[in-house]
Fold Kinesin motor domain-containing protein.
Amino acid sequence: MVVGHYQTGKSCLVLGRDREVPGLLSNSIRHITQNFKFFLSINVSAYEVYDNSVKDLLKVTANAKPQSLDEFVKRGWAELVCLPVLSDEDLNLLVIRLWYARRKLPEIFQSSGSHLVVRVVVPSPLLPGKVGTLHLVDMAGFRTEEDKQNSSQSADLRYINLTYKTLYQTLNGKTPDQPWPLLRLLHPSILFCCIKLADKQKANHITLSNFCRKRIKK
């Protein structure tokens, strides 16, 4: 699910699954970042890492002509919903709840306090001096109460030992003869990500700790 903000005070919510429609996530983001009607603020809900979805996400400024988001909607691959602009916290919670409702999973949120976060700055192709700040949060250590009761240590916790530096290097690593390394590290963990446009100077002052404090907890 991708959420973009209109300058008219509305938000555009794109519903779809990148696993079923490869490129839906990255093309939706590219559509929003290149459309002047939007504020360049995007929230992407939890999604599972399959194929090259995250790799494509980091290529939103690519020169290749994207498939139209309208075409995704026309074919029934995605849904567009307009809603009033909400606060970041309310919007994230709404998107997370919608995601879990569509997947029919229990809506139980517990924080292990050990999630990984990486920040990637992407230059805006249309607005000189502006950059999009992409945060990726690895939720592999994210456990429900049921998980805690069934096992003293979830198998997913093996991901927690990774550091921010390791994850950042992995995102930027080049392995032409091997599968993209992020898939080996995170598959099939769940990610949350957020892209916001800001002045380059301001973006440099966005800290990971500030972003982590905004994670949804229940």
Remarks:
- The chain has one domain: 2-213.
- Residues 2-213 form one domain.
- The chain has nine helices and seven strands.
- Confidence is low (pLDDT under 50) at residues 36-67, 81-127, 131-218.
